[in-house]
Design the sequence.
């Protein structure tokens, strides 16, 4: 294992990863966990734990701005946390119990699935609320009232309160993936909140970011307790993401986010294939 001073290059890499992740709206853990495993040489469990801990610090700026803008639907977030928090604990504990070989296989397949989401699924900003509404969900949502979010800038968002069960189930799947491979919750949940539950994109994104912050913190804590912490790595990555997230939040509006998201999906798909090839075919 490298010493702390030998890992100085993690710092500039973290700045770049965080800038691209924040600027394109992609989960930062999709960058860091493969990087920690394939380049730094951490075990899969260590890489996932370090990726989650790095992500917690990296998303601070975005979370702060959404909370300050009063865009979080806390009622929905509580239900998402009901499914995702126990699931991330299950995923994190499960990751520590399986062999490195199996976990790398899960990691590679998970990256391929998430890459497919990035490539094939529209971003929340491009979706119209309810354009893939399901009659069953609409029927179950009937009579549950209306949710009203009053943002700090004076905007008022009003939409039907969605039937919670599908959201809890999706959050549970995303939570297990987050615990095992450090990513998956926002990729699975955010767009579905818009197209299935008619939630406005800004509210869906803010609510998902709030949920992910809690889930990532819990997952990072479980990994820190169950695996050997790699402080010599996160000691460089955390300062890097603090700088990169600030840069990314400023330059993001100038970047072609949709194009970058699709391109990054191809990259992550390639990384997933690389993990599987190196582990099972070499």
Sequence:
């Amino acid at each position: 294992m490298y010493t702390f001073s030998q890992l100085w290059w993690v710092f500039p890499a973290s700045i770049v990863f965080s800038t691209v992740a924040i600027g394109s709206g992609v989960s930062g853990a999709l960058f860091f966990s493969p990087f920690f495993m394939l380049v730094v040489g951490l075990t899969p469990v260590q890489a996932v734990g370090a990726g989650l801990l790095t992500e917690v610090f990296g998303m601070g700026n975005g979370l702060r701005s959404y909370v300050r803008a009063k865009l979080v639907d806390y009622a929905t977030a509580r239900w998402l946390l009901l499914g995702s928090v126990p699931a991330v604990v299950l995923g994190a504990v499960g990751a520590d119990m399986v062999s490195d070989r199996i976990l790398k296989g899960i990691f590679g397949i998970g990256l391929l699935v998430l890459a497919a989401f990035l490539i094939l699924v529209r971003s929340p900003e491009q979706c119209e609320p309810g354009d893939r509404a399901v009659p069953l969900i609409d029927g179950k949502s009937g009579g549950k009232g209306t949710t009203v979010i009053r943002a700090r800038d004076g905007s008022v968002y009003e939409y039907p309160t969605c039937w919670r069960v599908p959201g809890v189930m999706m959050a549970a799947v995303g939570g297990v993936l987050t615990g095992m491979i450090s990513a998956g919750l926002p990729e699975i949940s955010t767009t579905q909140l818009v197209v299935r539950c008619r939630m406005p994109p800004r509210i869906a994104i803010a609510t998902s970011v709030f949920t992910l912050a809690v889930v990532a913190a819990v997952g990072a804590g479980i990994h820190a307790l169950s695996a050997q912490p790699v402080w010599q790595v996160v000691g460089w990555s955390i300062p890097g993401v603090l700088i990169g997230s600030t840069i990314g939040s400023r330059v993001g509006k100038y970047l072609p986010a949709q194009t970058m998201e699709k391109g990054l999906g191809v990259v992550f798909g390639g990384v997933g294939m690389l993990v599987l090839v190196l582990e099972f075919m070499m």
The first helix runs from residue 10 to 24.
